[in-house]
């Protein structure tokens, strides 16, 4: 498909607008000139019609009747097409006219109008009739009465048409010259005005995976139409660069975690094969292998859950959302985490200040609470408490998980929701964790239109807040219910 030049299209629009303006000027010029010429022509017709009336006189000997001096008739407007006139009176009966007069001319007269147009022998004429013009001749005529006559006078309008066309040609020629000049100026101005866009496109085209440096031109930033585009490109690039960096880090971290798990499995196998062992030792080694396989399986499951949650967030959440009760999902999460809490000697308490419903998958929410509780339990000392609380509000619900454990260093707090990010850098079986739990929780919460944040003081504890929008139909009930769960 042939590409259309933006400069060409804008120039064509400007030239087209100028062309329409030129055509309009020509039409207006011709119309205005014709009206002015026609007004002058009508005044001339009136003058000639009255001049014809002035040629009527009474007989010098006092005889009744009227006479007309035809030789003194005013000259025609156009020598090739003579004027037409007629003078007549009812009392006394009198009639005089030009040689080319035809009574059919008067049939074109429009009732109630003094001027009208007609065509004779292919020539356009404009006619005028003056009615009841008084003829007074004090020297030879009666003084007690005035004779009234009607005068018809017509002249060709070819000169009007010719002059109007001349005006049109002059205006059209001048407009065409201006059109060429303004077209060239518009093309230059459009091309010059699009230079910032061209420079912006060149800068954007130089971006690659290896080069994320984007420097929008100064002209683009100073142009009101291009400044938002430049800012949008910068924003998108920053997000893309972050996504590429996160992808590389994720692959590197995932490969490291998998390599570590495989190395542990390989080490256990090698240890079993180094020398003959008793059935009891083989059994203990196989149990260790089974634990390592479980750990590897858990890592893969968490990676798959994170990928599913991120895909769901990228798609704007699931298409059909169920209604889930927050208190119920929290209770299920506490039930699932009982064994881990019991093994570490940690008490888990659930407090719900009323019921609240959200549009979400109950299993996803339960996974969020399990990950938050698991993270809190792993960093809590024995005989400590982890508190899970649900607080419904006007249009949202606040869920918090609080522990009084080791806490998180201030420099690590902004990064705890990143994948494979852990405050505890050890990778022993005892500490557990892959640094994916909080990342999964954050992705799921944001996929449902919520938010998550954490506050922590080193060696004093951590509190994670989750806020989720309530369903439109749901209204939080105000009756507080507190149900501690001990594990």
Put simply, the count of helices is 10
Architecture (CATH level 2) name of the largest domain: 2-Layer Sandwich
Q: What's the arrangement of strands in the largest beta sheet? A: 13-14-12-11-9-15
Query: Structural class, please?
Result: alpha+beta
Helix and strand succession?
HEEEEEEEHHHHHEHHEEHEEHEEE
Poorly predicted spans: 425-432, 474-487
Strand percent estimate: 15-25%
Outline the biggest β-sheet: 6 strands, mixed
- Supply the number of structural domains: 3
Level of helix content?
40-55%
CATH fold-level name of the largest domain: Heat Shock Protein 90
Q: What is the mean pLDDT?
A: 80
Query: Which descriptor suits the 3D outline?
Result: rod-shaped
Tell me, what is the CATH class of the largest domain? Answer: Alpha Beta
How large, in whole angstroms, is the Cα Rg? 51 Å
The CATH homologous superfamily name of the largest domain equals Histidine kinase-like ATPase, C-terminal domain
Number of strands: 15
Q: Termini distance?
A: 69 Å
